[in-house]
Amino acid sequence: MSWIVHLFRPKAELPVRAAAAVDAWRALPAVPETAGLVDTRFVVVDVETSGLNPRRDRLLSIGAVAVERMKLAPQHTFSAVLRNEVPSTRENIALHGLTPAAQAAGAPPEDALADFLAFVGRSPCVAFHADFDRTVLERAVRVVLGVRFDNPWLDLARLAPALAPEGRRVRGSLDDWVAHFRLRVHTRHNAVHDAQVAAELFLILMARANARGVATLAALRALDACRQRTMGGYIAGV
């Protein structure tokens, strides 16, 4: 069944495994705002969708990478393609490479999203243009699993110019910042690979934040919020 059908069918009970994952996630404590950056597990997230409207277009895949103790945790990665029986457009497929066969063979949305909740836990989420990823994931989790995904978020598109002003890329893309810091990219517009390179950017920015005395989750979120007021709110793709 296509993911979009969940919007219009009556609410059904979740499969046992998905329901258990949701219950376990709900039982987890929130990460305290006073937590030090070095003590906080972050999850850097990227999504691929059927278009650029996060309130309407379908979620196709999720990639996520954990950052623990201000280091990448390469053994802790998450990747899922959600089953979509009606494929996205040719132009969209050319961007992310998820063929109609790959979309049709994806995991059931309730399983993929339950597994994502189990992976992310209550960790703060990080993304480049985070408003887009947050909106897509909050909508999908609410529609498919019936739960409010309310983890805190940080936006690399706002933190990067705040912590690396020499880049002078106030509205720069992820590619711009990758080039600025000479980061290695395996494949762009693949969710888990984009999450990986975004995680490398996040590590650079966390080190700079720590050097400036921004040492807690609350302080980093305050810097993000301050930059949001300066730049103005927006939702945009990578």
**Overall geometric form:** globular
List the uncertain runs.
Answer: 1-10
Could you state the CATH homologous superfamily?
Ribonuclease H-like superfamily/Ribonuclease H
Order of helices and strands: HEEEHHHEHEHHHH
Q: Kindly state the number of beta strands.
A: 5
CATH class: Alpha Beta
In the CATH hierarchy, the third-tier topology is known as: Nucleotidyltransferase, domain 5
At CATH's second level, what is the architecture? 2-Layer Sandwich
Distance between the termini: 29 Å
The tally of helices reads 9
Helix fraction? Answer: 40-55%
> Which structural class best describes the helix and strand composition?
alpha/beta
Q: What strand order characterises the main sheet?
A: 3-2-1-4-5
Count of structural domains: 1
Average pLDDT works out at 90
**What's the main sheet like?**
5 strands, mixed
Percent of residues in β-strands? 5-15%
Instruction: Tell me the radius of gyration.
Output: 17 Å
Could you walk me through the main structural features you see in this protein, from its secondary elements to its overall organization?
A five-stranded mixed beta sheet has the order 3-2-1-4-5, sandwiched between helices. Strand 4, helix 5 (130-145) and strand 5 (153-155) form a beta-alpha-beta unit. Mean pLDDT is 90; it is low at 1-10. The protein has helices at 16-27, 90-96, 100-104, 109-120, 130-145, 156-163, 174-180, 191-211, 217-231, and strands at 42-49, 59-68, 71-81, 125-127, 153-155. The two termini are 29 Å apart. With 238 residues, it is of the alpha/beta class. The protein has a single domain, classed as Nucleotidyltransferase, domain 5, CATH 3.30.420. The chain contains nine helices and five strands; from the N terminus they run αβββαααβαβαααα. Helix 6 crosses helix 9 (217-231).
